[in-house]
Amino acid sequence: MLVRSQEMGKYVQDGLFDARIKPARIGFWRPASTSSRYVSWSMGNRASNPYAGFWLVPETSRVRSVKDLQGKTIATELVSYVKKYLAQRKVKAKVEYSWGATEAKAGILVDAIVELTETGRSLKANQLRIVEDILSSTTRFIAK
Question: What is the three-class DSSP state of 33?
């Protein structure tokens, strides 16, 4: 059965699914019981390395730090994570959910993006500059 990744944790906790695969630091999943278990699992283009999330802007942008995003618009799939990150730094910005092709939106539809990458190739192809690392993550296999 195919379901959205955001729903899988609930289904594992409720016993409807036996297991799921998810990034380790995306979202704030916590085992519901002591019978829930997880292990790191290497996969992807850089199997031995974690993938990373970055604040990104066009190479020509004047933004040099996250503080420079005050009052700006940011696109990401990690809306809750980014809002908490900004709140901790006392930066007020509009955070929009991106349904995909986030790299193409930077500098045209939004001022900055937060994106996850394994290799960084799409960042270079879209002429994006890293403002700040936001997270590092490995893949986890979670079972109940």
Answer: coil
Say if residues 23 and 140 touch (Cβ distance below 8 Å): yes
Task: Write out the E strands in 2-144.
Answer: 19-23, 37-41, 51-58, 73-76, 94-97, 112-117, 128-137, 139-143
Q: What is the mean pLDDT of residues 51-77?
A: 92
| CA 12, chain centre distance (Å) | 21
- Predicted TM-score (pTM) of this structure: 0.68
Instruction: Provide the terminal-to-terminal Cα distance of the chain, rounded to the nearest Å.
Output: 18
Q: How far is CA 95 from CA 39, 73, 126, in A?
A: 32, 6, 21
Q: Which residue has the tokens 């699914």?
A: 17
